[in-house]
């Protein structure tokens, strides 16, 4: 028997009456919650012992992480802060506020499962038309910046520098001039 905290998104409040009413119907946070409820998280839930204080449900923590990735919030400290400040994060967290250590430990513990589930969420989002995917390529190439103040040339001064390089007589000085004054 697992020992999880109850996820209750229908609890009434004075103003507004429930967390459900805080977001528009077609908000991304609603999509994330709906997808989280449909994912098979038995591998994650089965690894909890069920002793000690009640744990946050993996559905809740995974929902926070995936919505954070979708909105550009990656840090566990920022995810924790967003569970207080952001209505969307608060909706996903069912008005709970997991500590940043809890979020980081969950991410570290289930990294391989999170990667696989994240791909499933992206595929599902693409199939439903919620997501348009493009191509991003990073190759790790390091390029020397060369931002020396002497080498920087304003666009208006470019022709004058080029003319000065052409006036130089030997070809060797022309090459060195090009190195000093890139255009």
Give your account of this protein's structure.
- By secondary structure, the protein is mainly α.
- The chain has 2 domains: 110 residues, no CATH class; 37 residues, no CATH class.
- The protein contains 9 helices and no strands.
- Helix 1 packs antiparallel against helix 3 and helix 4 packs across helix 6.
- The radius of gyration is 27 Å and the shape is elongated.
- The C terminus is likely disordered.
Compressed to H and E, one letter per element, the order equals HHHHHHHHH
Number of self-contained structural domains:
2
The separation of the N and C termini measures: 70 Å
Secondary-structure-based class equals mainly alpha
Residue runs with pLDDT of under 50 for 5 or more positions: 176-183
Shape: elongated
Round the Cα radius of gyration to an integer and report it: 27 Å
Mean pLDDT: 80
Q: How helical, in percent, are the residues?
A: 40-55%
Instruction: Please report the total strand number as a whole number.
Output: 0
Total helical segments: 9
Beta-strand percentage?
A: under 5%
Largest β-sheet summary? none
SSE arrangement:
Blueprint: H1 28-38, H2 42-45, H3 58-71, H4 76-85, H5 87-92, H6 100-109, H7 111-128, H8 158-167, H9 171-180
Helix pairs in contact: 1-3, 4-6
In a nutshell, what does this entry contain?
This protein has helices at 28-38, 42-45, 58-71, 76-85, 87-92, 100-109, 111-128, 158-167, 171-180.
What structural keywords apply?
2 domains, 0% strand, 9 helices, 183 residues, 51% helix, single chain, mainly alpha
